[in-house]
Each structure stands twice: as structure tokens, then as C-alpha cells.
Amino acid sequence: MILSKRPEIDRFLKGPPSDVRAALIWGGDRGGVRERADVLAKAVAADPDDPFNVAVLSEADLDRDGAKLIDELSALSLMGGWRLVRLRLTEGKAASDAAAAEALKAHAEGSLNPDAFFLVEAGRLERGSALRKAGEAAKQAVAIPVYEDETGDIVRLVREALTAD
To answer: Percentage of residues in the chain with pLDDT exceeding 70?
Structure first.
């Protein structure tokens, strides 16, 4: 499922429905991707820095150990509740894209730990990207594109900041 309207994205990031097991946040605005991922991570995990309930992986981790992503998505939380597995893709390697797509599809279908939430952060993904296709097609996953700011977005941001002050 694709979320593209700001109100539905904000609502999802603050409290994802329990039937959603994965989120793919991608786009050319890397700061916007990271910002949205941080908000979602705080909503899913009480403490996004807790090493017992949160696993943060990168493309380098996938290169070193191809099974690590599936292992983390299969692991149970030591403290109970949601477990967060966060994957940060920065280089756009085809192998990482394919591995993440496989894991996202398997996890969304319920093949792995149902109490784990899989959060993927990626840069630009072309229409043909396996990861993008998997995120958009999976019923238990959400794909959130993040586009570069336009003039109207900047004006709204300034207006909101000034109103808050």
C-alpha cells in the first residue's frame, strides 16, 4: 500500500496499525526519509536505541552476512512486545535491494516473527526496483515516498514554525 498524502502519512507515522508489519520510506530527500523513519521508530519501539529490542542494519551488514536480515526479523524480543528491525540502504546496490525486497515480502506475508516491525530507509528507488515493487504490493506493508521540498512546502513549514512561536 502506498501512502502519499501528508495527513495519512502523519497519522501512520505516529501510530501504525497493528496489522502493518513493514514500512518502506524512500526518496531523494534523505533528510526527510530519516526524519520520517525516526518518528516511526519512536512509535514502534519505546526506546529506539534499545539494543535488545532494536536492530539497526546497513548495506555493509548485508554484504558481510546475507542471512543477518532474516535472522533479525525472526528473532524474538527479550522484553516482549514489538521488536524493531531497521535497515538503512544508502548505496542503492542491486544485491541489497533484492535481499531487502525478499525479506520485506516474506515478513509482510507472516513468514517471520509477527511481533517484529521491519523499517526500511532507502534513497531514490526507480520504478523497476524490486524493493519498491515489494513495498507497494504487500498488503501488510506501507510504502512512503519522500520527495524534495517544493516552494509551497517551504512556505508551509515557515508558517507552521512561526505560528508555533
So the answer is: 96
* Distance of alpha carbon 127 from alpha carbon 110, whole angstroms: 25
DSSP string, the chain: -B--SHHHHHHHHHS--TT--EEEEEES-HHHHHHHHHHHHHHH-SSTT-TTTEEEEEHHHHHH-TTHHHHHHHPPPSSSS-EEEEEE--S--HHHHHHHHHHHHHHHTT-S-TTEEEEEEES---TT-HHHHHHHH-TTEEEEEEPPP-HHHHHHHHHHHHHH-
Q: What is the pTM of this model?
A: 0.83
- Confidence at residue 78, expressed as pLDDT on a 0 to 100 scale: 72
Q: Looking at the predicted structure, is the pLDDT value of residue 158 above 70?
A: yes
